[in-house]
Amino acid sequence: MLLKERPGLVCCQNPSIVLSSFLVAIKKAAGFRVCVDAHNAGLFPAEGRSPRLMRMSAYIQRRSDLTLVTNRDLHEQVKRNQGRPFIIQDRIPDIPRTPPAALKGRHNILFICSYAEDEPYRLVFDAAHRLDPRVHIYVTGNYRKKNIDPGLLPANVSLTGYIPEERYVEMLNSVDATIDLTEREGCLVCGAYESVAVEKPQILSDTRALRRYFHKGAVYTQHTAEGIRDSIHALLNNRERLKREARELKEQRSKEWEVKRSALALLLEDMARGEAGHGSFNADPSRTCPEKGKGEG
User: Fold this and answer.
1) Within the chain, what is the greatest distance between any pair of CA atoms?
2) I need a labelling partner for 275 at 20 to 30 A (CA). Which of 69, 155, 173, 176 fits?
3) Do residues 206 and 182 touch, judged by C-beta distance below 8 A?
């Protein structure tokens, strides 16, 4: 198809590291440029523990004409590998408002979880033991893949299992707040964007990337049971202020994203025509989208 269509520009996601490697290897012979949308697992495959995969990742970054990343830490990683990064976060999604469902607790919190390796979910279970029983935590995701027995968890924890999108949207609209945690330093978690979309206060991991981008409407926690418990208390005690900040952040980030999208679209058009230069380009969105020191330039 590539040989038939002869595109000027090909965009792909990494992962797949195989697809990305293939495209950057053949791009010169096939006469196109490559833009790679690099997820954390693309820049740090196997959590960065495989030297061979890390070399492949560095090769892709070096050979790509543009690498899209979500934050400054990943931007610097691509630069270290002699790549050409451009920072653009996810768009704040459009999530419909729904009537709230009847939930179990006086205060209800949704822990957005997929039981991935970087999520300290057992610490949230431990924190629930230390909470007022009227604070109820709902946990999404397929817990069966980790052989978790719901009967061994505190009474104020409900495992939803994998739920369809409609039910997930209903839960987002029904709870008082959300939790989304990651042990990856340079990761902007999807649940944080979704929480901002429905203007909910949230608890996030205390990382540079999350503090910079979600700098309002959130409480940041250390990964200990006591830290998570204390963060829940802090959120509930300041819920109205955090709700107001979440609305402000939604408006701010939505406007900024449109500016970044326009800048990226122009750059990709130039690349497709073979006009975008190499080496001298500095993909720093703060030049077109200043964020008063809080952003991801």
Assistant:
1) 64
2) 69
3) no
Tell me the residue type at 253.
Answer: R
Cα radius of gyration rounded to whole Å, the chain: 21
Mean pLDDT throughout 192-207?
98
pLDDT number for residue 210 = 97
Calculate what percentage of the chain has a pLDDT beyond 90: 91
Residue 284: the pLDDT is: 44
Domains along the chain with CATH numbers: 2-91+255-287 (3.40.50.2000), 107-250 (3.40.50.2000)
Alpha-helical (H) ranges within the chain are 2-5, 17-30, 40-43, 51-63, 72-80, 121-129, 165-174, 190-197, 208-213, 225-237, 239-272
Q: What is the pLDDT of residue 294?
A: 32
Are 141 and 119 spatial neighbours (Cβ–Cβ below 8 Å)? no
pLDDT one-digit tens code per residue, 59-86: 999 999 999 999 999 999 999 999 999 9
Q: Is 196 exposed, middle or buried (0-12, 13-18, 19+ CB in 10 A)?
A: buried
Distances (CA, A) of 259 to 223, 254, 262, 264: 35, 9, 5, 9
| Contact residues for 237 (Cβ-Cβ < 8 A; gap 6+) | none
* Residues 225 and 123 sit within 8 Å (Cβ to Cβ): yes
